[in-house]
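Support request from a user on the community tier.

User writes: "When I paste my structure tokens into the form, the page sometimes reloads and wipes my input. The last time it worked, I copied everything first. Here is what I submitted, just in case something in the input itself triggers the reload:"
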């Protein structure tokens, strides 16, 4: 499905419509998210959610 959607502009448009950036994620996007999640800043946010019962 993914390969077919990438080749068909209509399918690609339908697949990307609900995404905030209206594009497919690049490796750099995923890497940035991983760096953030491994950071101390993300740890503080996670601890706060645990405190609130989240």
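"...and here is what came back when it finally went through:"
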């Amino acid at each position: 499905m993914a390969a077919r959607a990438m080749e068909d502009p209509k399918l690609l448009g339908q697949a990307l419509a609900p995404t905030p950036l209206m594009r497919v994620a690049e490796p750099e996007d995923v890497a940035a998210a991983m760096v953030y999640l491994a950071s101390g800043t993300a740890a503080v946010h996670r601890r706060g959610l645990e405190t609130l019962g989240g």
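Agent notes: The reload is a front-end session timeout and is unrelated to the input. Residues 24-54 form one domain. The CA atoms of residues 5 and 33 lie 25 Å apart. Escalated to web team.
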